[in-house]
Structure formats: structure tokens, C-alpha cells
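hiii, so i know i said id send this last week but things got crazy w the move. better late than never?? heres the sequnce for the chain we talked about at the cafe, plus the structure i predicted for it. fair warning i was half asleep when i ran it
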Amino acid sequence: MSLATRVLRRLRPVPAPAPVVRAVRPPGPITFADISELPNPALIPKIDRPGMDERKLSPEQRDWRRDGVTILPRFIPDSVLDPYIARREKLRTEAPAHFRGGWYTPTPYEHVPELRDVALYPPLMRMMQHLVGEEMLLHLSLTGWVSTERNWHQDDYLNPSFVNSWYAAVWIALDHIDPDAGPFEYVPGSHRWPLLRQHKVLACMSEAAAEERDPVSGAHVWPKTSEVFVVPAIAAEMAARGAEVRQFLAEKGDVLIWHGRLMHRGSPPRSHDVLRRALIAHYSGVKHRPDMRRRARDANGMQYYLANLPLW
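okay and structure toks below
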């Protein structure tokens, strides 16, 4: 058995949701309303709830509440970024086939201390706690130096329903980001739209499609196969709302923190020859991931999830 097969077979998806009751659907396209709902305000972070006195918020919190993003120019110093950039650059010689896409392991931070130093940078972790209202847990990092080309989506529906927006992700520029490289794009204010729900998406699929798994990793593939109706539903909603699309054209050290309900995508690159040097990391509130009990702390006390996966 190859190393790739051994690694992928150790990857495990988030536990499957409870069985979904599939109603007979009327004919016609699936709409955004069919697959989303407004969450219970009592279950989401306080900063997202209606009626908050915004006069008490910091400028970063006001940006977060209004737009669903907080942008921090030159936030992470070169002294923190450069060791990780050098380690990541070594993939050119260590694993040339991996180089542009980065490590395949979803938790490379377990093995790359230089990555942990960036993703768990204490001022960044404190800022996310300031925005979300809870200490945050690192549990995913994407190390590709090209656009993900993942189409329009919210992150929250890919998680168990109990996460309920106690979630944030960061986009960290490691160099100047060229507009031709496929920049991160987002719809400001879309974090106040209804939330895509996993069980509603699965209800629009056949049982076989909802349960289909990758033959190598064993992971459910519905997040990808459901794009055939999820992306058009989002696009129609964006058109109906006259949604504004913004790009994050960043310089080295710039950070964008985004909300778990924000509509965003990795835009298609205009040139596949231009690298997009960045680090993406995802976090959940420490009290809202009972499914991620194996944890560690770095030297600064910041928490990260232990998936116990090899680096590959």
C-alpha cells in the first residue's frame, strides 16, 4: 500500500449528520431558501445578534459585524512569516509534485512548527477571540500557493450544526498577491444572510449521493457533488440581492479574518503561471467543538486540534 493511500485512509470526515427525512420536492430549481435558514439568535455569538449596542464595539468588531470580515494590514511581521515561507519553499525540492498545492494533510501544523507560529500568532488569536467572543481552536490549514478555485460557499454548513457561527478563518498573505493569481473574493454583509444547512443540502440529494464516499480516503464527497445545485442557488441569491463582490488584493503580512457564514470563494486565476503565496487557516470556538477533544497548546498557550495524521 502506498504512503498516499495510507495517509488518505486515515483522514476521517466530520461525523455524518443524523438521518435526513427526504420530502418529495416540487419540480423546478433548488433555491437558496430551500437549503438555508436563519439560526436561532440565542445560539450564535453575541456580536452577531440583533439589537447589539454598536457604540460599545471596537473598530475591528464594527467591521466584523457590518461586513463579516476584518482586514489587518501588515499585521504579521516578517520575523514570524519568513521561517514558515522558507520551510514551505522547501517543497520545491522535497516534493515537487506537491509544491503548488502544498501539503495534502489537512493538519500540517501538527508537524511544521513554523506554520504553527504563524497560524497561532498570539495577536491573531486574541483578535479572533475579540471578534467571535471565545478562545479559538486551530483545526485546518491549507498551504497551497495557488487559488483553491472553490466556488461560492459559506464554511459553516460544512461543519456540524452545533458550531453555529462560532467559527472564523484567516487568509494570510505571504507575498504581494497578483490579481491574475485568483484572489480571495467575498460578499460583504453576506454573513447576515440565512445560513446554508448541511441537512437541508443533503435532503435535496438522493440517499446514495448523500452517502457516497471517496474510494481512497473514505470521506463523504457530498460537499463537492452538491455544488451542482448549491452554487447556482447562491448565484441566484447574489443576483437577487444585487450583491457586491470584493477582492482581497494583499501585501505580505496582510491578514483577512472572515466569518463562518460569509459567502466567499477562491476566484479562478487568469494565469496559472502566477503563484498565490498565502496561508489559510480555520478555527472554531474551543467550547463549540466537542467532536475535537484531542488538543495541544503551543508555547504561548494557544490551542490546536490533534488529528494525529502524518505529514504528506
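btw The first strand starts at residue 36 and ends at 37. thought thatd interest u
miss u guys!!
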